[in-house]
């Protein structure tokens, strides 16, 4: 196995950079780009157990896995044991995923109100029983992504991790924030270390990874097996390649040129259109396009224009005009 590789169950993962599941983001168009830039493991956006149970066509479509996405974890959210087992078996038998992940970390009100996501951390006995039933009914490795607890007064990630390991979970990802923190404040990596020290299965550390130095520090401070990167890669898939390189050789890659950024934005848009058609794909691209141009000169004006695109030609016209205006800039620059 490669020097920085590790395993979840019998699934070999080539490096220590994992891309987090992001709702509305982690579709095949985005995931393939992450894989292209060297991610060791990628997650799908979370899918509903109830939607799969009731044969929702759109949700079933979200479980499709492309050939060049492996290894991939397909993430499931829910609360009821019967429907979670049904959905997990469907993923196990009918999809091409490598790993089945259970979401215990999503803090969004809609998910929490259904007693799923991070709400499961408020009832660890039920959470462990639910996961046990899933593990017993599927052949693929089962993992869990969770937070450190509901709030600072109810931090139970260590006890929950021990219980999950006992029922056969193959790996755990820990986001170093509570549900109450949402995505604010700082992630407390000390709890990731506590989880890693308490279990023998792989632990993935998540929270506040913005560069190679952050990733290396998390690995060293917590002893975790891999780092999970989320929002930092939006519009910047080069971050994946840079972190991989930094962990392997302690060096950063060259800065990315304006032309490279825009070429990837165009490719991302085309992949979204292939996946969802131009009408929907381009509307979803509005947010991605704004992330791709973050930090560029006069980016506020550029972002404003990109949030209104209604066709691929609109995107092309805006990017081409900007490229022409800034043609005098160096090909390589620290945008």
TrEMBL record:
FMN binds at residues 21-23, 75, 145, 175, 230-231. This is tRNA-dihydrouridine synthase. InterPro entries: Aldolase_TIM, DUS-like_FMN-bd, DUS_fam, DusB-like, tRNA-dHydroUridine_Synthase_C, tRNA_hU_synthase_CS. Belongs to the dus family. The gene is dusB. The active site is at 106 (proton donor). Its cofactor is FMN. It is an enzyme of class 1 (oxidoreductase). Catalyzes the synthesis of 5,6-dihydrouridine (D), a modified base found in the D-loop of most tRNAs, via the reduction of the C5-C6 double bond in target uridines. Its EC number is 1.3.1.-. One of its GO terms (molecular function) is flavin adenine dinucleotide binding. Keywords: Flavoprotein, FMN, NADP, Nucleotide-binding, Oxidoreductase, RNA-binding, tRNA processing, tRNA-binding. It catalyses: a 5,6-dihydrouridine in tRNA + NADP(+) = a uridine in tRNA + NADPH + H(+); a 5,6-dihydrouridine in tRNA + NAD(+) = a uridine in tRNA + NADH + H(+). Residues 19-319 form the DUS-like FMN-binding domain. The lineage of its organism: Bacteria, Bacillati, Bacillota, Erysipelotrichia, Erysipelotrichales.
